[in-house]
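Justification of resources, computational component.

The compute hours requested in this renewal are based largely on the per-chain cost of generating structure records like the one below. Each record pairs the submitted sequence with a full structure-token output. That output is archived, and it is also reused by downstream analysis tasks.
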Amino acid sequence: MRADYSSGSASSPGAVVATVLIGCWAVGVTVVSQTGGWAVDQVLLLTALDRLVLLWPLVSLLTVVAIGTAALPLAMVPRSATIRSTGRVWLAGTLTLGVLGLLRAIPPVHHEAYLAVLAVTATLLALVARWASGRVAGADRWPAPAQPRALRPSVATWLALAAGLALLVPWVWLGALGGLLETVVAGLAAAAVGALAAALLDARFWGHFTGGQPPRPARLVLLGGLVAGVVLLLVGAGTGQSGAQLPLLVALPPVGFALAALHALTRRHPRTAGRTWTAWLVGLTVFGPLAFTDPEEISLLLASTRDVPFWVAVATGAGLVVALVLAIAYGLLLARPAARPPRPALAGLTALVLLVAVGAIGVGVGQPGLHGERLFVLLHEQADLADLPAGTGKAGRDARAEQVYRRLVATAERTQAELRRDLRRLRLEHRPYYLVNAIEVDGGPVVRAWLSSRPEVARVLVSQRLRPLPAPAAPAVGDAPAPDGPPWNITMIGADRVWSALGVTGAGVTVGSSDSGVDGRHPTLVGNFRGGDDSWFDPWNGTRTPTDRSGHGTHTVGSAVGRGGIGVAPGANWVGCVNLDRNLGNPASYLDCLQFMLAPFPPGGDPFTDGRPSRAPEILTNSWGCPPIEGCDPGALRPATDALEAAGILVVAAAGNSGPLCDSVQDPPAPYPDVLTVGAVDQRRQVAAFSSRGPAPGGVAKPDLMAPGADVLSAMPGGGYATLDGTSMATPQVAGVVALMWSADPDLIGDLDRTRQLLRDTATVVPTGTDSAERTDACGGTRNVIGAGLVDAYAAVRAARG
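The structure output for this chain reads:
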């Protein structure tokens, strides 16, 4: 880049060095700001903090300032028209990133709305860019075009289409589409971004690298490709919600070299040349991440296994390899001075073959079909559960559960009738619920607006659905040895003393687990599965026997009722339900399991007519929470826990792992007053740093109790064992303690108030760990850090007997 052959003016070495440094600065700032912004989003998500609406607008503003202040002098000062053109197009790309980055203020849950706004904004920016390009054309002398070869412009278009389809292959193979509307607007957004790139990298831009005699295509490919790659990096950084732009930071820049090679092939640049093939190539490259991934799933929540983040990384790496191969191949084959252009028929045939290949891959080895989110519709009227028959003990609890079930079903049938009739008429697939008077429905923003306008509907939430994977993650297994006696957590709470000194093991009580599943063949769990045709429900995968790939559910059930020393109540029975798929759920899946726990039903049965309340487990252990990213709002599941409370079923739930922050008991059902919420302590009997603190929303004091939750040994799928951390591990131990209490005094079954009072009265105070007095005071006192204290199984069972 020693001479500007397009204008004849010399480029000083200092200007060339400055251009290189500014380009490197732009790349560095963009990559750091985009990955850093995504990382902040993930930290907020993992710590249960509210999403910062102004995060991405602020990141965009800082990026524009950081890059724009460097690129602006480059666009105005140098004598070289080529360097000025480079500065201007980088400045335009920076402003484009700034404008598109503002759109990420739209919540990720409204993905269709974001894509639609992106399509409109990118289209307007393309029009502005074309207008601005014409305005500045007179500032620099238009480069004289080289003498063209006899070449039809359609050849470059076909080659660009073929390259774009090749870049789409990894996403079609490894990704999955969302809903119909989501896919359509993703296509429109990708087309608009392609048109925007074509407007920025127009004939005037390329002309500064190709003018003069004789033509120098190698310079065009190397220098023009580098400058165009920085522009595409900036455009890609602004495209997609947080997470979706990361693959584009890798795959889009090499496309600049392929575009340069296509322009070198034509050797001619009328004012409209290049727009079509630039739009096709960039648009198809952008369409892959936009359409075949859900940005909410590019999350650290799923990063521990070979889930969506892993496959996105694989697709990104494959896309980078394809882009580099295309850049090299097009550069070598098309940009040589003696290169013969392909025949139009051959170029078109290549594109057609790749189009067929993309379709075959999508249908054959991909994940065909549409996999969009559904809508969760909550109705205003909820069942009246007042004036239920009093009574405790097994018989009294069963009678109450029967009455609750009948009232809930009757209310749902009456209030949902008209809405369900309209949904059938519109052929919208739906599933009704009664534990919360709600319906899950297929549909997008239009259906949501229609449902929200109905008088019987209180609100409409998005029921998150994970897209399928190209291959399932390997099942979790344990590598720890089997215990040769009760582990430390069992002895800390005195459960082993209950077995030996009081002769109580939990016999006659059933604990229900809603989690990732249970390995029903594990030696510690196979003997006390309740059995029958109504003790297992898997709404995700339809399995007929207890299974678990994640291991989370097997571990928690083992801590509650596992034999061999790992479970608090080894004599109790267990039943299970799968409400998590790959560690994520949604309001409907959580409700599926809670509803099954109130009135179990056989495989293929109708929950409304085939429920058996007398078979409901007495205690429910729930080591999960439903955050906003999964679709829940604070009150989404409150009617469900109210109904279970009315039925005499004790709901035990994990406080969460967002400590030591105050106000971090956020995700339902943990904040609800009628739920027994459990925090975690470590082996020193101190509050674990990760254990969430209260108060809960509305000022409710949480957690209620503490239990061991750090380095807890329990069962894993395949017969193994592992130690895990979390309030998830503490929660089933409290459920096990209640099973011991109710086994010791069956008259206590269903008497939830007295049970909770006995647990509080017998709990032991524990230190607040690393929490300072100021931090504890900020949380509202020790009550919102340790609750009533550490659960004491021995004292609680003795108090129950007394």
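The longest strand covers residues 457-463. Residues 488-744+753-801 form a domain with the Rossmann fold fold (CATH 3.40.50.200).
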